[in-house]
Every structure is written in structure tokens, then in C-alpha cells.
């Protein structure tokens, strides 16, 4: 039977304090419960051992704690781990742990499915079902942090919002989750170790700048020529490059933060000199970094990674124009955990 009890983790600390005052208890009780819910990740009211049995029962009568379950965990030969995460309503999202020598990174989802239609991305084949709640985003990070400690003997060091979904189309919840992740009452991580990756929603990039967020921004550009970008990322027709660029100029003026661009070079699509030159023109207004990422095939063979000569051409043109460029290899390909491969198949 569907429960009508409220998810207690939808309440802020202040709301929890008020709740206890209304129950003729001390506001401080709210702080205790908040700590159990967030920094201690309690899954049941019973776990809250510094509360009286009556208080725990009263909470049980009024609320539920919705938490995620890691349904399956797959391990890649390179140490990458992919979790299929079951939400309280049965829907599934995926998150990934990517270990390297110097860091362990969580790649988390922000939506169930995605409403964007990037033609090279497996997640775009899944209909967008709903946004994730802040606690569902937070829980993915907690689950990966545990796995990082267990399998790699170190805590999680970085987080990227590069899993399923478009984070800027679930901005409020992503922001709330990041608040919890960075707060000392949550995981206490530095916002400088968090990257939000977007396909480029100009209005929301401006909003992020106005909100003076402290995390980093990455833009999945893939082409700086409208016609080409629209052919592979059709929503570019609604948010053309001119609008995206203006929003990024605004972001840079307000935050002075370097912008990272994610970029795949595909055979016959964006592998010509004029493509690289357009990229330089697009991003040279601010200190920029271009990550040339490896394409992870998603079955139908329509897109193919360009040959290394095309990548070399991009690298030399970007470097000549003082734009930082890195060539990134994919991780976790054997378990479909690499960028763009998250599609709930097991
Ligand atoms: N919606 C957000 C975050 C999810 S996608 C965004 O677009 O940024 C995370 C990154 O994976 C993006 O840079 C995206 O362009 C890239 N990506 C998607 N499909 C890919 C594929 N098949 N191979 C390599 N990268 C891919």
C-alpha cells in the first residue's frame, strides 16, 4: 500500500527543529535527528539510539526515510565500479566510481532518464521519468564513498555530475544535494572538488553565476558550429551557441572561474581544421580547458571516434592558442560504465 507519510529528509534542519517544538520537545532534538539522517546516513528510526524509544516511535508514526538500495554492483577490470541504484518508487539510475592513482571520483545521476536528445548518448534513449530528489543524489555519493573506502582504501575525493540526466534541468535539487555534500553536517567535501556538467542551458548558467556557486562548471560542447551541433545535439536549435556563449561570458565575468569543455571528435562530423578553429574562437574569451574525451560506442555504429591524426590536429591548434587541452581515456567500458553508456542495461 502506498504510504502517505512524509519523507523526513525533505525537511530542512530548521523545519525539523520546529517540528519538535510543536511536539513539546526541544528544538535541539531536530539537530540530533538531522545528524542521524545526513552525516550518519541512518536508514531507520530505530538506528537513532540517542533518542528515546517513544520519540523514535513518534517519528515512525509520522515519517518515512526513503533511501536508495544498490541493486547490483559491477566491477570493471580497471577498478571502475558501476552501481544500479533502486529508488523508493522502483525506478533505477546508475552511478559510477572511477579510481585513478591520485583520486577517486563519483559520477552521479541527476535525473531518471534524460529529456535531452544527444544522438551519441545511450541515456537519451531512456525517456525522462522524473527528477531525483536531493537525498537520492546525496545517497549515491554516500554509497560510492563507502565502496571507495572498502575497495580502494580511501575516501571519495571528487564528484562529477556526469551520470544520467541534465543537472541544470534539476537545478534546485542538485544545489540542495551539493549543499548537503559540502556541509560539515553532511560529507564536508570541498565544492572545488565537484563538477557539474551541462549540455548548456543558458538561463541556468546565468542563474548559477548569480547564485555564486562554488563548484566547477563543465560544458559538453562537441561542436562550436551551430549546424553541426544541432545535428548531433538537436536541443541546440532551442539554445544556440550564441546564447550559450553569452551565458558563459556572464558566468566568467561573475565567477572568474575557468570553464572546462567536454568534446568528442567524431569521424566525418567534427574532425576538420575548421571545426577546431571554431572551437578556439568559441572559448578564447576566458581561460578554458578542453577535455578531448574518447567516444564510447553505443551499438548502432552511426558515430565513430575520429583517428588519432584528427585528435593531434585539435591538440596542436588549441595549444597554439594557449588553450589547455587534455586527451582523456575512457574507464569502465567493459561494464558499460563510461560516459554516455549509462542506460540501465545489465
Ligand atoms: N547532461 C550532462 C551530463 C551527462 S553526460 C551533459 O550533457 O554534460 C556526461 C558527458 O558524457 C557529457 O560530456 C556527454 O556529452 C558525454 N557523452 C555522452 N555520450 C557519450 C558517448 N557515447 N561517448 C563519450 N562521451 C559521451
Please give the structural blueprint:
Layout: E1 6-7, H1 13-22, H2 28-37, H3 53-62, E2 63-64, E3 69-75, E4 81-86, E5 92-99, E6 104-107, E7 111-112, E8 130-131, H4 134-152, E9 158-161, H5 171-182, E10 194-198, H6 202-210, E11 216-220, H7 226-232, H8 241-255, E12 259-263, H9 273-283, E13 288-293, H10 308-320, E14 324-328
Parallel strand pairs: 1-2, 6-9, 9-10, 10-11, 11-12, 12-13, 13-14
Antiparallel strand pairs: 3-4, 4-5, 5-6, 7-8
Bound molecules: S-adenosyl-L-homocysteine.
Structural overview:
This protein has 346 residues and is α/β, with parallel strands linked by helices. Helices cover 34% and strands 18% of the residues. The protein has ten helices and 14 strands. The strands form three sheets. It has a ten-stranded mixed beta sheet with strand order 3-4-5-6-9-10-11-12-13-14, covered by helices on one side. Strands 1-2 form a two-stranded parallel sheet. The relative contact order is 0.11. The model has no long low-confidence stretch (mean pLDDT 93). The site of S-adenosyl-L-homocysteine has 17 residues, from strand 10.
Amino acid at each position: 500500500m502506498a504510504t502517505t507519510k512524509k519523507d523526513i529528509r525533505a525537511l530542512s534542519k530548521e523545519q525539523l527543529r520546529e517540528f519538535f517544538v510543536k511536539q513539546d520537545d526541544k528544538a535541539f532534538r531536530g539537530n540530533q535527528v538531522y545528524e542521524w539522517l545526513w552525516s550518519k546516513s541512518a536508514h531507520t528510526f530505530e538506528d537513532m539510539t540517542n533518542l528515546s524509544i517513544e520519540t523514535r516511535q513518534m517519528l515512525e508514526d509520522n515519517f518515512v526515510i526513503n533511501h536508495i538500495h544498490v541493486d547490483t554492483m559491477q566491477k570493471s577490470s580497471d577498478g571502475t565500479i558501476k552501481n544500479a541504484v533502486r529508488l523508493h518508487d522502483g525506478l533505477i539510475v546508475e552511478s559510477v566510481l572511477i579510481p585513478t592513482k591520485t583520486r577517486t571520483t563519483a559520477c552521479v545521476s541527476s535525473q531518471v532518464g534524460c529529456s535531452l536528445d544527444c544522438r551519441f548518448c545511450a541515456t537519451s534513449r531512456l525517456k525522462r521519468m522524473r527528477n531525483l530528489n536531493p537525498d537520492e543524489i546525496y545517497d549515491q555519493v554516500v554509497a560510492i564513498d563507502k565502496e571507495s573506502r572498502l575497495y580502494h582504501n580511501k575516501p571519495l575525493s571528487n564528484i562529477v555530475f556526469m551520470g544520467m540526466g541534465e543537472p541544470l534541468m534539476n537545478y534546485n535539487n542538485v544545489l540542495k544535494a551539493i549543499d548537503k555534500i559540502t556541509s560539515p553536517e553532511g560529507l564536508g567535501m570541498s565544492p572545488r572538488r565537484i563538477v557539474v556538467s551541462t549540455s548548456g542551458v543558458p538561463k541556468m548558467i546565468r542563474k548559477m553565476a548569480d547564485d555564486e556557486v562554488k563548484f566547477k562548471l563543465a560544458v559538453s560542447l562537441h561542436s562550436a558550429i551551430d549546424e553541426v551541433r544541432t545535428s548531433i545535439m538537436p536541443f541546440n536549435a532551442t539554445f544556440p551557441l550564441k546564447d550559450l556563449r553569452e551565458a558563459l561570458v556572464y558566468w566568467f565575468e561573475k565567477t572568474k572561474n575557468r570553464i572546462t569543455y567536454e568534446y568528442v571528435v567524431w569521424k566525418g562530423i567534427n574532425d576538420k581544421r575548421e571545426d577546431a578553429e571554431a572551437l578556439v574562437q568559441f572559448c578564447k574569451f576566458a581561460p578554458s580547458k578542453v577535455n578531448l574525451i574518447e567516444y564510447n560506442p553505443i551499438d548502432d555504429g552511426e558515430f565513430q571516434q575520429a583517428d588519432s591524426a584528427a585528435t593531434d590536429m585539435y591538440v596542436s591548434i588549441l595549444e597554439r592558442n594557449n588553450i589547455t587541452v587534455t586527451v582523456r581515456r575512457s574507464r569502465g567500458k567493459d561494464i558499460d560504465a563510461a560516459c554516455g553508456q549509462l542506460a540501465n542495461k545489465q
